[in-house]
Amino acid sequence: METRPSGPSEKQPPGAGRTAFIPGPRLIGWVERFAASHGAVQEEPDDGGTLLRAADGTLLRAADGALALLRAPWPVDGRPGRGTSTVERLASLASQERRLGIILVRRGGYAVGVVSGGKVTASKSGSRYVQSRSAAGGSSQQRFARRRENQANALTEAVAGYAAGVFAGHGIEYLVLGGDAALSAAVLEESALKEYAARKRLAFLAVADPNATVLRKAAADACAVRIEVTDPL
Question: Is the domain 99-222 a CATH 3.30.420.60 member?
Answer without folding.
Answer: yes
